[in-house]
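Let's practice the habit of predicting before peeking. Look at the sequence and jot down your guess about where helices and strands might fall. Then scroll down.
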Amino acid sequence: MVNIVVELSKYLMILLIVMYTYLCFSIFGYYDPYIQKRMLRRQNVLMFMIHIVAFAVMYLEKKDVKILAFYAIQVILFMAVILLYHMLYPQSSRLVINNMCMLLCIGMIILTRLNYEKAVKQYVIAAGGIAISLAVPVIIRKFKLLSEWRKLYAVAGIASLAIVVVVGQVSYGAKLGFSVGGISIQPSELVKIIFVFFVASSFKMSLEFRDIVITTALAAFHVLILVVSKDLGAALIIFVVYLVMLYVATHQFLYVAAGVGAGSVASVAAYYLFNHVKTRVVVWKDPFANYDNGGYQVAQSLFAIGTGGWFGMGLFQGMPDNIPVADEDFIFSAISEELGLIFALCMILVCVSCYVMFLNIAMQLHNFFYKMVALGLGTCYIFQAFLNIGGVTKFIPSTGVTLPLVSYGGSSLLSTLIMFAIIQGLYIVREDEEEDIERRKKERLRAKRSRQAFPERRGKTGDELERAPEGRPKRQEKSQGKTYKEQRIR
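Done guessing? Here is the structure:
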Protein backbone atom coordinates (compact mmCIF):
# COMPACT_ATOMS: atom_id res chain seq x y z
CA MET A 1 0.00 0.00 0.00
CA VAL A 2 2.81 2.42 0.93
CA ASN A 3 4.55 1.75 -2.38
CA ILE A 4 1.37 2.64 -4.28
CA VAL A 5 1.02 5.89 -2.31
CA VAL A 6 4.68 6.78 -2.98
CA GLU A 7 4.29 6.04 -6.68
CA LEU A 8 1.14 8.14 -7.01
CA SER A 9 2.55 10.96 -4.90
CA LYS A 10 5.44 11.68 -7.25
CA TYR A 11 3.07 12.20 -10.17
CA LEU A 12 0.81 14.37 -8.04
CA MET A 13 3.70 16.57 -6.91
CA ILE A 14 4.90 16.94 -10.50
CA LEU A 15 1.41 18.01 -11.58
CA LEU A 16 1.17 20.51 -8.73
CA ILE A 17 4.55 22.14 -9.40
CA VAL A 18 3.82 22.32 -13.15
CA MET A 19 0.62 24.22 -12.33
CA TYR A 20 2.52 26.47 -9.91
CA THR A 21 5.20 27.22 -12.52
CA TYR A 22 2.58 27.99 -15.16
CA LEU A 23 1.06 30.60 -12.84
CA CYS A 24 4.52 32.17 -12.30
CA PHE A 25 4.61 33.29 -15.94
CA SER A 26 0.96 33.47 -16.98
CA ILE A 27 0.30 36.09 -14.31
CA PHE A 28 2.22 38.64 -16.40
CA GLY A 29 -0.50 38.42 -19.04
CA TYR A 30 -3.19 39.78 -16.72
CA TYR A 31 -3.53 43.38 -15.57
CA ASP A 32 -6.65 43.03 -13.47
CA PRO A 33 -5.46 43.06 -9.81
CA TYR A 34 -8.33 40.82 -8.71
CA ILE A 35 -7.35 38.13 -11.22
CA GLN A 36 -3.72 38.43 -10.17
CA LYS A 37 -4.61 38.05 -6.49
CA ARG A 38 -6.66 34.96 -7.28
CA MET A 39 -3.73 33.43 -9.17
CA LEU A 40 -1.33 34.24 -6.33
CA ARG A 41 -3.66 32.55 -3.83
CA ARG A 42 -3.73 29.49 -6.06
CA GLN A 43 0.04 29.41 -5.90
CA ASN A 44 -0.12 29.35 -2.11
CA VAL A 45 -2.60 26.45 -2.21
CA LEU A 46 -0.43 24.50 -4.65
CA MET A 47 2.69 25.03 -2.52
CA PHE A 48 0.98 23.79 0.65
CA MET A 49 -0.38 20.78 -1.26
CA ILE A 50 3.11 19.82 -2.44
CA HIS A 51 4.34 20.27 1.11
CA ILE A 52 1.72 18.07 2.76
CA VAL A 53 1.98 15.32 0.12
CA ALA A 54 5.77 15.12 0.51
CA PHE A 55 5.70 14.99 4.31
CA ALA A 56 2.85 12.48 4.31
CA VAL A 57 4.95 10.17 2.14
CA MET A 58 8.00 10.63 4.38
CA TYR A 59 5.91 9.85 7.45
CA LEU A 60 4.55 6.68 5.85
CA GLU A 61 8.08 5.62 5.00
CA LYS A 62 9.71 6.39 8.38
CA LYS A 63 6.75 6.14 10.80
CA ASP A 64 8.36 8.91 12.85
CA VAL A 65 6.11 11.43 14.64
CA LYS A 66 8.96 13.97 14.55
CA ILE A 67 8.37 14.36 10.81
CA LEU A 68 4.75 15.40 11.41
CA ALA A 69 5.79 17.86 14.12
CA PHE A 70 8.45 19.28 11.83
CA TYR A 71 5.88 19.62 9.08
CA ALA A 72 3.54 21.56 11.37
CA ILE A 73 6.11 24.16 12.40
CA GLN A 74 7.11 24.63 8.76
CA VAL A 75 3.49 25.38 7.85
CA ILE A 76 3.43 27.98 10.63
CA LEU A 77 6.61 29.59 9.26
CA PHE A 78 5.37 29.75 5.66
CA MET A 79 1.99 31.14 6.69
CA ALA A 80 3.69 33.70 8.92
CA VAL A 81 5.93 34.87 6.09
CA ILE A 82 3.03 35.31 3.67
CA LEU A 83 0.76 37.05 6.20
CA LEU A 84 3.42 39.29 7.75
CA TYR A 85 4.64 40.57 4.40
CA HIS A 86 1.04 41.17 3.38
CA MET A 87 0.24 43.08 6.57
CA LEU A 88 3.50 44.99 7.04
CA TYR A 89 4.12 45.73 3.37
CA PRO A 90 0.87 45.73 1.40
CA GLN A 91 2.77 47.12 -1.61
CA SER A 92 5.26 44.22 -1.68
CA SER A 93 5.46 41.74 -4.56
CA ARG A 94 3.39 38.68 -3.73
CA LEU A 95 4.95 36.70 -6.57
CA VAL A 96 8.45 37.14 -5.13
CA ILE A 97 7.17 36.11 -1.69
CA ASN A 98 5.47 33.02 -3.13
CA ASN A 99 8.56 31.95 -5.07
CA MET A 100 10.79 32.46 -2.05
CA CYS A 101 8.50 30.27 0.07
CA MET A 102 8.27 27.67 -2.71
CA LEU A 103 12.04 27.31 -2.98
CA LEU A 104 12.33 27.13 0.81
CA CYS A 105 9.61 24.46 0.81
CA ILE A 106 11.46 22.33 -1.76
CA GLY A 107 14.66 22.70 0.23
CA MET A 108 12.98 21.63 3.46
CA ILE A 109 11.43 18.59 1.78
CA ILE A 110 14.65 17.25 0.31
CA LEU A 111 16.76 18.14 3.37
CA THR A 112 14.32 16.29 5.64
CA ARG A 113 14.67 13.31 3.34
CA LEU A 114 18.50 13.48 3.34
CA ASN A 115 19.35 14.58 6.88
CA TYR A 116 16.69 15.41 9.46
CA GLU A 117 19.12 17.12 11.86
CA LYS A 118 20.43 19.45 9.16
CA ALA A 119 16.88 20.18 8.05
CA VAL A 120 16.03 21.31 11.59
CA LYS A 121 19.11 23.57 11.65
CA GLN A 122 18.11 24.98 8.28
CA TYR A 123 14.64 25.71 9.62
CA VAL A 124 16.02 27.60 12.63
CA ILE A 125 18.30 29.66 10.39
CA ALA A 126 15.42 30.34 7.99
CA ALA A 127 13.15 31.51 10.82
CA GLY A 128 15.85 33.81 12.19
CA GLY A 129 16.75 35.08 8.73
CA ILE A 130 13.13 35.87 7.91
CA ALA A 131 12.73 37.74 11.21
CA ILE A 132 15.77 39.85 10.32
CA SER A 133 14.77 40.36 6.71
CA LEU A 134 11.32 41.70 7.65
CA ALA A 135 13.05 44.90 8.79
CA VAL A 136 15.01 45.32 5.55
CA PRO A 137 12.27 46.76 3.26
CA VAL A 138 11.53 49.63 5.64
CA ILE A 139 15.28 50.39 5.86
CA ILE A 140 15.53 50.51 2.06
CA ARG A 141 12.49 52.77 1.90
CA LYS A 142 13.37 55.18 4.71
CA PHE A 143 17.16 55.52 4.47
CA LYS A 144 17.74 57.94 1.61
CA LEU A 145 21.52 58.10 2.03
CA LEU A 146 22.34 54.49 1.15
CA SER A 147 23.83 55.66 -2.14
CA GLU A 148 26.30 57.93 -0.30
CA TRP A 149 28.09 55.21 1.69
CA ARG A 150 30.48 54.11 -1.04
CA LYS A 151 33.61 54.09 1.12
CA LEU A 152 31.84 52.20 3.90
CA TYR A 153 30.77 49.46 1.48
CA ALA A 154 34.30 49.14 0.09
CA VAL A 155 35.97 48.97 3.51
CA ALA A 156 33.37 46.53 4.94
CA GLY A 157 33.64 44.18 1.95
CA ILE A 158 37.42 44.08 1.75
CA ALA A 159 37.86 43.80 5.53
CA SER A 160 35.38 40.90 5.78
CA LEU A 161 37.15 38.96 3.05
CA ALA A 162 40.59 39.74 4.51
CA ILE A 163 39.55 38.25 7.86
CA VAL A 164 38.83 34.94 6.11
CA VAL A 165 42.31 34.92 4.56
CA VAL A 166 43.86 35.35 8.02
CA VAL A 167 41.70 33.14 10.28
CA GLY A 168 39.62 31.15 7.78
CA GLN A 169 39.30 27.37 7.98
CA VAL A 170 40.14 25.28 4.93
CA SER A 171 37.17 23.34 3.53
CA TYR A 172 37.37 21.34 0.27
CA GLY A 173 40.63 23.04 -0.64
CA ALA A 174 39.46 26.62 0.00
CA LYS A 175 39.18 29.05 2.89
CA LEU A 176 35.46 29.69 2.94
CA GLY A 177 34.82 30.98 6.47
CA PHE A 178 35.40 30.60 10.18
CA SER A 179 33.52 29.46 13.27
CA VAL A 180 32.37 31.58 16.21
CA GLY A 181 30.85 29.74 19.17
CA GLY A 182 30.27 26.66 17.04
CA ILE A 183 28.45 28.67 14.37
CA SER A 184 30.05 28.60 10.92
CA ILE A 185 30.18 31.98 9.17
CA GLN A 186 30.96 32.46 5.48
CA PRO A 187 31.46 36.22 4.94
CA SER A 188 31.65 35.98 1.15
CA GLU A 189 27.89 35.33 1.03
CA LEU A 190 27.06 38.66 2.67
CA VAL A 191 29.93 40.46 0.92
CA LYS A 192 28.21 39.80 -2.41
CA ILE A 193 25.35 42.06 -1.29
CA ILE A 194 27.72 44.72 0.07
CA PHE A 195 29.69 44.59 -3.19
CA VAL A 196 26.55 45.27 -5.25
CA PHE A 197 25.80 48.34 -3.11
CA PHE A 198 29.39 49.52 -3.49
CA VAL A 199 29.34 49.28 -7.29
CA ALA A 200 25.89 50.90 -7.54
CA SER A 201 27.02 53.76 -5.30
CA SER A 202 30.22 54.25 -7.31
CA PHE A 203 28.41 54.36 -10.63
CA LYS A 204 25.82 56.78 -9.26
CA MET A 205 28.52 59.20 -8.14
CA SER A 206 30.40 59.22 -11.43
CA LEU A 207 30.77 57.36 -14.72
CA GLU A 208 33.89 59.21 -15.80
CA PHE A 209 36.71 57.02 -17.08
CA ARG A 210 38.99 57.88 -14.15
CA ASP A 211 36.35 56.93 -11.58
CA ILE A 212 35.48 53.73 -13.44
CA VAL A 213 39.15 52.73 -13.31
CA ILE A 214 39.18 53.29 -9.52
CA THR A 215 35.96 51.28 -9.08
CA THR A 216 37.33 48.50 -11.27
CA ALA A 217 40.54 48.38 -9.24
CA LEU A 218 38.60 48.03 -5.98
CA ALA A 219 36.35 45.37 -7.53
CA ALA A 220 39.43 43.51 -8.74
CA PHE A 221 40.82 43.67 -5.20
CA HIS A 222 37.67 41.92 -3.92
CA VAL A 223 38.16 39.19 -6.50
CA LEU A 224 41.88 38.90 -5.74
CA ILE A 225 41.26 38.32 -2.02
CA LEU A 226 38.77 35.58 -2.86
CA VAL A 227 41.26 33.99 -5.24
CA VAL A 228 43.94 34.04 -2.53
CA SER A 229 41.52 32.26 -0.18
CA LYS A 230 40.72 29.87 -3.11
CA ASP A 231 37.01 30.67 -2.95
CA LEU A 232 36.81 30.74 -6.73
CA GLY A 233 33.03 30.30 -6.92
CA ALA A 234 32.38 33.56 -5.05
CA ALA A 235 35.16 35.27 -7.01
CA LEU A 236 33.49 34.29 -10.27
CA ILE A 237 30.09 35.55 -9.10
CA ILE A 238 31.47 38.94 -8.08
CA PHE A 239 33.41 39.20 -11.35
CA VAL A 240 30.35 38.51 -13.53
CA VAL A 241 28.09 40.77 -11.46
CA TYR A 242 30.53 43.64 -11.88
CA LEU A 243 30.76 43.17 -15.65
CA VAL A 244 26.97 43.14 -16.03
CA MET A 245 26.53 46.24 -13.89
CA LEU A 246 29.38 48.00 -15.72
CA TYR A 247 27.90 47.35 -19.13
CA VAL A 248 24.37 48.40 -18.17
CA ALA A 249 25.67 51.59 -16.54
CA THR A 250 28.02 52.65 -19.35
CA HIS A 251 26.78 50.78 -22.47
CA GLN A 252 30.45 50.41 -23.42
CA PHE A 253 31.09 46.99 -24.92
CA LEU A 254 34.84 47.66 -24.85
CA TYR A 255 34.83 47.57 -21.05
CA VAL A 256 33.12 44.17 -21.06
CA ALA A 257 35.49 42.82 -23.71
CA ALA A 258 38.47 43.92 -21.64
CA GLY A 259 36.93 42.31 -18.54
CA VAL A 260 36.24 39.02 -20.33
CA GLY A 261 39.80 38.98 -21.64
CA ALA A 262 41.24 39.59 -18.18
CA GLY A 263 38.94 36.94 -16.72
CA SER A 264 40.03 34.40 -19.32
CA VAL A 265 43.69 35.00 -18.50
CA ALA A 266 42.93 34.69 -14.78
CA SER A 267 41.07 31.39 -15.36
CA VAL A 268 44.06 29.90 -17.18
CA ALA A 269 46.35 31.10 -14.39
CA ALA A 270 44.06 29.54 -11.75
CA TYR A 271 44.17 26.23 -13.63
CA TYR A 272 47.95 26.07 -13.32
CA LEU A 273 48.21 27.60 -9.84
CA PHE A 274 45.56 25.64 -7.90
CA ASN A 275 45.48 21.84 -7.90
CA HIS A 276 41.79 21.62 -6.94
CA VAL A 277 40.88 23.83 -9.91
CA LYS A 278 42.88 21.59 -12.24
CA THR A 279 41.18 18.53 -10.73
CA ARG A 280 37.71 20.01 -11.29
CA VAL A 281 38.49 20.84 -14.91
CA VAL A 282 39.85 17.33 -15.55
CA VAL A 283 36.78 15.82 -13.89
CA TRP A 284 34.53 18.05 -15.97
CA LYS A 285 36.10 16.72 -19.15
CA ASP A 286 35.51 13.08 -18.22
CA PRO A 287 34.35 12.23 -14.68
CA PHE A 288 34.16 8.49 -15.40
CA ALA A 289 37.76 8.30 -16.60
CA ASN A 290 38.80 10.01 -13.33
CA TYR A 291 36.32 8.17 -11.14
CA ASP A 292 38.90 7.44 -8.41
CA ASN A 293 40.70 10.76 -8.76
CA GLY A 294 38.06 13.37 -7.97
CA GLY A 295 35.41 12.26 -10.45
CA TYR A 296 33.35 10.17 -8.02
CA GLN A 297 31.11 13.05 -6.93
CA VAL A 298 30.18 14.24 -10.42
CA ALA A 299 29.78 10.67 -11.67
CA GLN A 300 27.37 9.83 -8.85
CA SER A 301 25.49 13.04 -9.60
CA LEU A 302 25.04 12.04 -13.23
CA PHE A 303 24.01 8.53 -12.19
CA ALA A 304 21.35 10.00 -9.87
CA ILE A 305 19.93 12.34 -12.51
CA GLY A 306 19.86 9.53 -15.08
CA THR A 307 18.29 7.07 -12.65
CA GLY A 308 15.51 9.44 -11.67
CA GLY A 309 14.48 10.11 -15.26
CA TRP A 310 11.56 12.42 -16.01
CA PHE A 311 9.29 11.33 -13.13
CA GLY A 312 11.77 10.38 -10.39
CA MET A 313 12.05 7.34 -8.16
CA GLY A 314 9.86 8.73 -5.38
CA LEU A 315 10.87 9.90 -1.91
CA PHE A 316 13.08 7.36 -0.12
CA GLN A 317 13.17 5.20 -3.25
CA GLY A 318 16.49 6.44 -4.64
CA MET A 319 20.05 6.54 -3.33
CA PRO A 320 21.01 10.24 -3.16
CA ASP A 321 23.04 9.48 -0.03
CA ASN A 322 25.72 8.04 -2.33
CA ILE A 323 26.44 11.56 -3.62
CA PRO A 324 29.01 13.34 -1.44
CA VAL A 325 27.65 16.58 0.13
CA ALA A 326 24.29 15.98 -1.56
CA ASP A 327 22.58 18.33 0.89
CA GLU A 328 24.81 21.27 -0.11
CA ASP A 329 26.49 21.51 -3.52
CA PHE A 330 24.69 18.57 -5.20
CA ILE A 331 21.16 18.96 -3.88
CA PHE A 332 19.83 19.40 -7.44
CA SER A 333 20.92 15.82 -8.21
CA ALA A 334 19.04 14.50 -5.17
CA ILE A 335 15.91 16.36 -6.26
CA SER A 336 16.22 15.02 -9.81
CA GLU A 337 16.64 11.43 -8.64
CA GLU A 338 13.69 11.23 -6.25
CA LEU A 339 11.28 13.91 -7.50
CA GLY A 340 12.11 13.69 -11.19
CA LEU A 341 13.65 15.84 -13.89
CA ILE A 342 10.30 17.52 -14.66
CA PHE A 343 10.06 18.65 -11.04
CA ALA A 344 13.69 19.85 -11.15
CA LEU A 345 13.13 21.78 -14.40
CA CYS A 346 10.08 23.46 -12.91
CA MET A 347 12.19 24.47 -9.93
CA ILE A 348 14.68 26.06 -12.35
CA LEU A 349 11.82 27.97 -13.97
CA VAL A 350 10.75 29.24 -10.55
CA CYS A 351 14.29 30.60 -10.12
CA VAL A 352 14.02 32.21 -13.56
CA SER A 353 10.68 33.72 -12.53
CA CYS A 354 12.43 35.36 -9.57
CA TYR A 355 15.08 36.76 -11.90
CA VAL A 356 12.43 38.11 -14.28
CA MET A 357 10.79 39.94 -11.38
CA PHE A 358 14.18 41.34 -10.29
CA LEU A 359 14.81 42.67 -13.79
CA ASN A 360 11.27 43.99 -14.06
CA ILE A 361 11.73 45.96 -10.86
CA ALA A 362 15.15 47.22 -12.02
CA MET A 363 13.75 48.47 -15.35
CA GLN A 364 10.83 50.31 -13.73
CA LEU A 365 12.85 52.08 -11.03
CA HIS A 366 13.69 55.71 -11.82
CA ASN A 367 16.45 56.12 -9.24
CA PHE A 368 19.73 55.03 -10.89
CA PHE A 369 21.26 53.72 -7.65
CA TYR A 370 18.26 51.51 -6.86
CA LYS A 371 18.13 50.36 -10.47
CA MET A 372 21.75 49.18 -10.28
CA VAL A 373 21.15 47.45 -6.94
CA ALA A 374 18.19 45.48 -8.30
CA LEU A 375 20.16 44.50 -11.40
CA GLY A 376 23.22 43.45 -9.39
CA LEU A 377 21.29 41.37 -6.86
CA GLY A 378 19.28 39.69 -9.61
CA THR A 379 22.42 38.81 -11.53
CA CYS A 380 24.10 37.54 -8.37
CA TYR A 381 21.14 35.28 -7.59
CA ILE A 382 20.59 33.75 -11.02
CA PHE A 383 24.29 33.30 -11.78
CA GLN A 384 24.82 31.44 -8.51
CA ALA A 385 21.92 29.15 -9.39
CA PHE A 386 23.46 28.63 -12.84
CA LEU A 387 26.86 27.76 -11.38
CA ASN A 388 25.35 25.21 -9.00
CA ILE A 389 23.10 23.47 -11.52
CA GLY A 390 25.69 23.69 -14.30
CA GLY A 391 28.31 22.05 -12.07
CA VAL A 392 26.17 19.08 -10.98
CA THR A 393 25.03 18.38 -14.56
CA LYS A 394 28.59 18.59 -15.98
CA PHE A 395 27.66 21.58 -18.10
CA ILE A 396 30.51 23.54 -16.50
CA PRO A 397 33.23 22.60 -13.99
CA SER A 398 31.95 22.40 -10.42
CA THR A 399 32.50 25.60 -8.45
CA GLY A 400 31.28 24.53 -5.01
CA VAL A 401 28.50 27.12 -4.62
CA THR A 402 25.10 26.35 -3.13
CA LEU A 403 21.67 26.49 -4.75
CA PRO A 404 20.06 29.60 -3.15
CA LEU A 405 17.23 28.89 -0.68
CA VAL A 406 17.35 25.15 -1.43
CA SER A 407 20.79 23.90 -0.37
CA TYR A 408 21.83 23.50 3.25
CA GLY A 409 23.98 26.40 4.43
CA GLY A 410 23.32 29.11 7.00
CA SER A 411 25.29 31.99 5.48
CA SER A 412 23.95 31.32 1.99
CA LEU A 413 20.36 31.09 3.23
CA LEU A 414 20.62 34.26 5.33
CA SER A 415 22.20 36.30 2.53
CA THR A 416 19.57 35.15 0.02
CA LEU A 417 16.70 36.01 2.38
CA ILE A 418 18.19 39.48 2.86
CA MET A 419 18.63 39.77 -0.91
CA PHE A 420 14.94 39.00 -1.47
CA ALA A 421 13.99 41.46 1.29
CA ILE A 422 16.03 44.20 -0.41
CA ILE A 423 14.19 43.48 -3.64
CA GLN A 424 10.91 43.84 -1.77
CA GLY A 425 12.09 47.19 -0.45
CA LEU A 426 12.98 48.30 -3.97
CA TYR A 427 9.58 47.12 -5.21
CA ILE A 428 7.93 49.35 -2.58
CA VAL A 429 10.23 52.24 -3.59
CA ARG A 430 9.09 51.74 -7.17
CA GLU A 431 5.46 51.97 -6.05
CA ASP A 432 6.30 55.17 -4.16
CA GLU A 433 7.95 56.59 -7.28
CA GLU A 434 4.86 55.80 -9.35
CA GLU A 435 2.61 57.47 -6.78
CA ASP A 436 4.88 60.52 -6.71
CA ILE A 437 4.81 60.75 -10.51
CA GLU A 438 1.01 60.53 -10.51
CA ARG A 439 0.81 63.21 -7.82
CA ARG A 440 3.04 65.56 -9.83
CA LYS A 441 0.99 64.95 -12.95
CA LYS A 442 -2.18 65.90 -11.08
CA GLU A 443 -0.50 69.02 -9.68
CA ARG A 444 0.65 70.07 -13.16
CA LEU A 445 -2.83 69.42 -14.53
CA ARG A 446 -4.42 71.54 -11.80
CA ALA A 447 -1.88 74.30 -12.45
CA LYS A 448 -2.61 74.16 -16.18
CA ARG A 449 -6.34 74.40 -15.62
CA SER A 450 -5.78 77.30 -13.22
CA ARG A 451 -3.73 79.18 -15.82
CA GLN A 452 -6.42 78.59 -18.42
CA ALA A 453 -9.11 79.87 -16.08
CA PHE A 454 -7.05 82.89 -14.99
CA PRO A 455 -4.69 83.90 -17.83
CA GLU A 456 -3.46 86.96 -15.87
CA ARG A 457 -1.78 84.61 -13.33
CA ARG A 458 0.83 83.33 -15.79
CA GLY A 459 4.38 83.92 -14.72
CA LYS A 460 3.33 84.95 -11.21
CA THR A 461 4.41 83.31 -8.01
CA GLY A 462 2.03 82.31 -5.27
CA ASP A 463 2.87 85.37 -3.14
CA GLU A 464 2.42 87.69 -6.09
CA LEU A 465 -0.98 86.19 -6.82
CA GLU A 466 -2.05 86.68 -3.21
CA ARG A 467 -0.87 90.33 -3.17
CA ALA A 468 -2.10 91.16 -6.64
CA PRO A 469 -5.65 92.27 -5.79
CA GLU A 470 -4.55 94.64 -3.01
CA GLY A 471 -1.10 95.63 -4.26
CA ARG A 472 -2.11 97.23 -7.55
CA PRO A 473 -4.85 99.53 -8.85
CA LYS A 474 -8.17 98.01 -9.65
CA ARG A 475 -8.47 97.26 -13.35
CA GLN A 476 -11.69 97.81 -15.20
CA GLU A 477 -12.91 94.94 -17.32
CA LYS A 478 -13.34 96.19 -20.86
CA SER A 479 -16.71 94.66 -21.52
CA GLN A 480 -18.45 94.74 -18.15
CA GLY A 481 -16.46 97.33 -16.20
CA LYS A 482 -15.85 94.95 -13.26
CA THR A 483 -12.73 95.09 -11.16
CA TYR A 484 -10.16 92.29 -10.92
CA LYS A 485 -11.24 91.55 -7.38
CA GLU A 486 -14.86 91.18 -8.48
CA GLN A 487 -13.81 88.88 -11.31
CA ARG A 488 -11.87 86.68 -8.90
CA ILE A 489 -14.76 86.31 -6.48
CA ARG A 490 -17.09 85.30 -9.25
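How did you do? Confidence is low (pLDDT under 50) at residues 470-490.
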